Amino acid sequence: GRSYLRFLAEARAALDLGTKNFIERDFDGLGDFLDLALIPLLRSVSVGELLGRHASRMAKRFRDPRLQAMFTFQDLYVGLSPYEAPGVFSLLAATELTDGVWYPEGGFGKIRDGLEEAAKKNGVRVLRGTEVVSISVDADRVAGVTVSGGEYLEADAVVCNNDVANSYGLLSSTYGSEQAADVSALKYSAGVIAFNWCVNKRFTELLHHNIFLSGEYRNSWNLARSPSELVENPNFYVHVRIQQLCPNRGQTPLWFYFPLRIRRIVE
User: Fold this and answer.
1) Of 111, 122, 153, 155, which sits 20 to 30 A from 80 (CA to CA)?
2) Where is the Amine oxidase domain (predicted)?
3) Structural domain includes residue 198
4) pLDDT, mean over the chain
5) pLDDT per residue over 15-47, tens digit each?
């Protein structure tokens, strides 16, 4: 109990320090990091531990490997393994456990629906189920997009909510092709498989947040070269939704979150 409270206090202090002096502050150049006013602040936290491996930092605070695993599982959120991620990511657990996690009533789909409704009220035409097949480039700027069906939409700006490799691949320029090839050759971070299920059963033994750890915790973070190399019993997270989002009363809405680390195979 005391180890947990000490860890939480340390992480919270580092989070408050980092938020005020780094996250909420603009750094326009290397010189901004050399501010002498930051030296006393850096002395109040263990910089070496924050920059070292997250798994090593937790091993110094908890003897039980299950507790170490539980407080490093959040590294998955940023696509990293706790054996690769820096110790600063312990701040993720701090904000979850002290601030809590907030979400909109009805789920995040409500935000999407609200944005769509507001856009339509302001004269925006929303195209659903329409794939962007190409992003046009004119000289050194993006000029528009071509969608499935062949329609070309001219635009002053294009916001692409796609992964980096595919975004470069959509650019109609030599630069885009070259960047897509370079990015595809990089080592990809962790991914996940997420399932949203409505189950015809009540699970009174499950809490709001549940982390299931296998006996192969460390191996489950290894980068697999094929699906056959994935561990048979992975770690996974289960979220029991508070709101009734299922079509039938008596059903339990469950969200399963499986970490997946597999090398991208380029044909």
Assistant:
1) 111
2) 51-203
3) yes
4) 80
5) 887 777 777 777 777 776 666 666 666 666 677
Q: Helix, strand or coil for residue 123? A: coil
Q: Which residues contact 137 (CB under 8 A, 6 or more apart)?
A: 143, 171, 172, 173, 175, 176
Ranges of beta strands (E only) in the chain are: 132-138, 141-147, 152-154, 191-199, 209-212, 236-240, 252-260
Q: Look up residue 75 and give its amino acid.
A: D
Residue 207: inside a domain: yes
Cα 76–chain centre separation: 7
- pLDDT per position as a tens digit, 64-85: 888 888 888 878 777 677 888 8
Report d(CA 220, CA 73) in Å as an integer: 11
pLDDT tens, position by position, 150-184: 999 999 999 998 888 888 889 988 888 888 888 87
> What's the structural domain count of the chain?
3
Domain that holds residue 56: 2-98
3-state helix, strand, coil in the chain (%, to 5): 40, 20, 40
Task: Tell whether 213 and 135 lie within a shared domain.
Answer: no
